[in-house]
């Protein structure tokens, strides 16, 4: 009887309508059992569960910080920065020229004297803002390197950004040696005259010139109006050659000697980062009178293909970027024009014959007695119109007049405007290292 009731109960549970309920009950029981296991401390984790991820650290982040005895492993790697774009190339000289006004272009064509003792720093600062883009230290100073550097810094500090559009200033001086050494005093070594410099080997002279140039650079000077590459024909004639031989400014009495030692001097200056200015093209070694203090000074011998041109050609071939033109007449080259007003000397001989592409700078156009017949304004316009690049003027009072006439003519004469633009571009090329 009892067995019969059990069998009936089993049959009742196994009926189709009860099976899903049994399955659901079993699943719920299993779920509660799993929760209980996960909440039990000390139990082994489910081996199938995925491991908890950890942050990644860089080697630098894991290094112990300053003052810590243990490395830190809690600084995550900084997110990678996007690749920085390369810096744009600097503007070309042509682009710089385009950015300059006509007034700013004309300023680049002038180099005015500033007294090396600083006594006219105020007026020169005014000129730098309104009329000129370059200076040269003139006269004499015994103040030394540090004082000269302070003077140059003072002059530069007074220039407004609008005056030059950020263009660097050429700062020159006459540091030839012997009686022509503007800067002396602490930090400046005494420089022997060129004729004495030539007693050294070219290699030694180049090394010495590098030292002299380094002293200039420390003083803020980046252009030296040296060396003289004029050839004096003989020791006997030298005393009669008032501008060169009388002061032993020559490197010798043959073009070969002058070229070897004069260009060693130029190379040493360039080694130091100072631009040499070779002078006085096409040569002052054959004249008797000095154009600074005399009029009607003529060279009656030098020709367009003269052997005495060799030192200049060698300098240009060697990369010199400045040539100074003399103020004399050259009767066998261009008898109708003094050299700074001669297209034959500047455009034909320098640009075409010698292939020179740098700055053609004048000798002093303002105080030279040789140029007394011309007004200040005409001196500047004649020079630039004939192919010159930069007017050098020793008289600060003359600069505004010269600048004004160059500017006015550039506004009214298209051909002269082209000459101004070409000269300004040449200055920009040299200032940017071209």
Distance between the amino and carboxyl termini: 123 Å
Order of helices and strands: HHHHHEHEHHEEEHHEHEEEHEEEHEHEHH
Mean pLDDT: 86
Globular, elongated, flat, extended or rod-shaped: what is the shape?
globular
* Proportion of residues in helical segments: 40-55%
Beta-strand content: 5-15%
Task: Name the poorly predicted regions.
Answer: 1-75
Number of helices: 16
Radius of gyration: 41 Å
* Count of strand segments: 14
Q: Which structural class matches the secondary elements?
A: alpha/beta
Give the spatial strand order of the biggest sheet: 7-6-3-2-1-14
| Oligomerization state | single chain
Largest sheet: 6 strands, parallel
Structural summary, described in words:
By secondary structure, this protein is an alpha/beta fold. It is 40% helix and 11% strand. The protein has 16 helices and 14 strands. It has helices at 2-13, 19-38, 59-62, 93-99, 102-107, 121-130, 145-157, 161-164, 194-197, 202-218, 255-271, 310-317, 343-353, 376-385, 399-412, 414-431, and strands spanning 110-115, 134-138, 170-173, 175-177, 180-181, 223-224, 275-276, 278-281, 298-299, 322-325, 329-330, 334-338, 359-362, 391-393. The strands form 4 sheets. The chain has a 6-stranded parallel sheet with strand order 7-6-3-2-1-14. A 3-stranded parallel sheet has the order 8-10-13. Helix 6 links the parallel strand 1 and strand 2 (134-138). The longest helix is centred in the N-terminal third of the chain and has 20 residues, at 19-38. The N and C termini lie far apart (123 Å). 41% of the residues are buried.
């Amino acid at each position: 009887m009892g067995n019969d009731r059990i069998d009936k109960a089993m049959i009742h549970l196994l009926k189709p309508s009860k099976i899903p309920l049994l399955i659901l009950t079993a699943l719920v029981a299993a779920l509660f059992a799993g929760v209980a296991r996960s909440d039990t401390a000390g139990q082994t984790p489910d081996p199938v569960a995925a491991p908890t991820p950890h942050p990644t650290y860089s080697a630098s982040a894991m290094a112990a910080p300053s003052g810590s005895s243990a490395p830190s492993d809690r600084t995550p790697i900084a997110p990678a920065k996007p690749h920085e774009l390369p810096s744009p190339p600097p503007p070309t000289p042509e682009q710089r020229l385009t950015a300059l006004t006509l007034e700013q272009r004309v300023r680049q064509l002038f180099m005015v004297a500033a007294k090396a003792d600083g006594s006219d720093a105020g007026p020169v600062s005014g000129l730098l803002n309104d009329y000129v883009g370059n200076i040269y230290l003139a006269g004499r100073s015994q103040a030394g390197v540090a004082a000269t550097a302070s003077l140059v810094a003072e002059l530069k500090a007074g220039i407004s950004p609008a005056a030059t559009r950020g263009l660097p200033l050429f700062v020159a001086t006459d540091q030839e040696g012997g009686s022509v050494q503007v800067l002396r005093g602490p930090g400046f070594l005494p420089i022997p005259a060129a004729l004495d410099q030539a007693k050294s080997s070219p290699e030694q002279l180049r090394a010495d010139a590098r030292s002299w140039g380094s002293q200039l650079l420390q003083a803020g000077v980046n252009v030296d109006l040296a060396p003289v590459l004029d050839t004096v024909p003989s020791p006997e004639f030298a005393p009669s050659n008032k501008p060169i031989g009388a002061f032993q400014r020559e490197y010798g009495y043959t073009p070969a000697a002058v070229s070897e030692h004069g260009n060693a001097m130029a190379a040493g200056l360039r080694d130091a980062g100072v631009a040499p200015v070779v002078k006085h093209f096409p040569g002052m070694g054959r004249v008797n009178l000095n154009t600074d203090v005399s009029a009607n000074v003529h060279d009656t011998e030098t020709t367009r293909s003269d052997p005495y041109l060799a030192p200049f050609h060698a300098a240009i071939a060697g990369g010199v970027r400045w040539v100074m033109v003399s103020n004399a007449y050259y009767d066998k080259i261009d008898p109708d024009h003094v050299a700074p007003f001669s297209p034959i000397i500047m455009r034909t001989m320098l640009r075409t014959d010698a292939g020179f592409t740098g700055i053609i700078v004048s000798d002093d156009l303002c105080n030279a007695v040789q140029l007394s017949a011309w007004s200040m304004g005409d001196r500047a316009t004649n020079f630039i119109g004939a192919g010159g690049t930069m007017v050098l003027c020793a008289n600060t009072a003359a600069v505004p007049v010269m600048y004004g006439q160059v500017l006015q003519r550039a506004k009214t004469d298209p051909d002269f405007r082209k000459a101004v633009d070409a000269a300004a571009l040449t200055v920009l090329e040299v200032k940017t290292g071209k």
